[in-house]
Design goal:
CATH superfamily of the largest domain: 2-enoyl-CoA Hydratase, Chain A, domain 1
Structural class: alpha/beta
Number of domains: 2
Pfam families: ECH_1
EC number: 4.2.1.17
Helix content: 40-55%
Enzyme class: lyase
Distance between the termini: 63 Å
Protein name: Enoyl-CoA hydratase
Catalytic activity: a (3S)-3-hydroxyacyl-CoA = a (2E)-enoyl-CoA + H2O; a 4-saturated-(3S)-3-hydroxyacyl-CoA = a (3E)-enoyl-CoA + H2O
């Protein structure tokens, strides 16, 4: 078993999970899945979560084919898919905003990890694609369903069905990536954005966007209205107008 497959950094209210297998282009092995689960446990309580990869070649290059090639039965393949799907579901279900910082290419399963986040920020030289069909398989970690939500059913089928890989600019144009930053500004840029989200009530906004009764949405607003943070911010605005 490799050591330190996944790093967890607690940076104030922000938790940063880094998949740290640059020698394997940050491919997901079974041990990596275990470490991701542990990192998500450690991130609990943070107001925002960022997920990225080590180095600048790959965010996540997909499953580790050298290891996963040992899975030869439907039962084994299904168990692996359920395992990683549950992790992507945990990422998507994190209470605060989740940012996928695409430091490198996100291909196959890597694209599935990326779309489990709420927001995708990409360096301008990266590519993203659901190219599992090149191996005569399909997305199985929940990515196909999430892709439909992001780009629509027909475009999702076109992308996943052909395995087309998009550069960052086109991915942003179709809604698969939310913001593209120049490589030189990427590391500081995504972290600054993540800290901004961690410092605002973005978690409450995410919860309401997920679908809650109107009474609960209004109650969430009312709680924020009476909080000290609201009045401190309001005082600053009102004092500027004097």
């Amino acid at each position: 078993m490799e050591n330190d497959l996944v790093d967890l950094e607690l940076d104030g209210e922000l938790a940063v999970i880094t998949i740290d297998r640059p020698h394997a282009r940050n491919a997901i092995s079974l041990d990596t899945m275990d470490e991701l689960d542990k990192a998500l446990d450690g991130a609990a309580g943070s107001r925002a979560l960022a997920i990225t990869g080590a180095g600048d070649r790959a965010f996540v290059s997909g499953g580790d084919l050298k290891e996963l090639a040992a899975l030869r039965t439907e039962r084994e393949a299904g168990a692996m898919a359920w395992r990683m799907r549950s992790i992507c579901d945990r990422i998507a279900g994190f209470p605060g905003p989740v940012i996928a910082a695409l430091n490198g290419h996100a291909l196959g399963g890597g694209a599935e990890v990326a779309v489990s986040a709420d927001i995708r920020i990409a360096a301008d030289d990266v590519k993203i694609g659901f190219n599992q069909v090149a191996l005569e398989i399909m997305p199985a970690w929940g990515g196909a369903e999430r892709l439909v939500t992001l780009v629509g059913r027909s475009r999702a089928l076109l992308l996943a069905g052909t395995g087309r890989v998009l550069d960052a600019a086109e991915a942003e144009r179709v809604g698969l990536v939310d913001q593209v930053l120049p490589r030189a500004e990427f590391a500081d840029g995504w972290r600054a954005l993540a800290h901004t989200l961690a410092g605002r009530p973005a978690g409450e906004i995410k919860r309401v966007m997920g679908g809650v009764p109107a009474t609960e949405a209004v109650a969430a607003f009312a709680r924020l209205w009476v909080a000290e943070e609201h009045w401190a911010a309001a005082d600053k605005v009102m004092n500027k107008k004097k």
